[in-house]
Write a structure and sequence with these properties.
Helices cover 43% and strands 26% of the residues. It is an alpha+beta fold. The protein has a 4-stranded antiparallel sheet with strand order 1-2-3-4, with helices on one face.
Length: 139
Amino acid sequence: MMPSNDVRKTNPNARQRNRQNGFTLLEVLVALTILAIALTSLILASIEITNNKGYLQNKTIATWVASDVMAKARIGLISPPLAPGSKTGTAKALNQRWQWNVNLNKTKEKNSYKIEVNVGLVNQAFIVHLVSFTRKPVR
């Protein structure tokens, strides 16, 4: 009888000794792909948060300016037009110039008027629209 030269048949642990420990190339590529997708999403979210911060800051300041203009219009410091129409002006808040527009419109109710205030950065679109009602225009 001839002795067997096949080590695998005689020793079941031989296969494990011949195989090296570690990850295959495919496993490493899959892990790197998942990591790249996760990091890209994180970076895009950070960029979006940064962009929204500036917009929300401007919108908050514009709301303050609109509230101030509305209060001044209601107590008579800013005279809206006595007839339906609009009046414009500028204000400075937090080292920025803001443009505002006050519109006075008659409503269906007798002696009732709608005051609208629009505010935005100078030479840019309005970003805040504020509405209030009053019984009569303040002179």
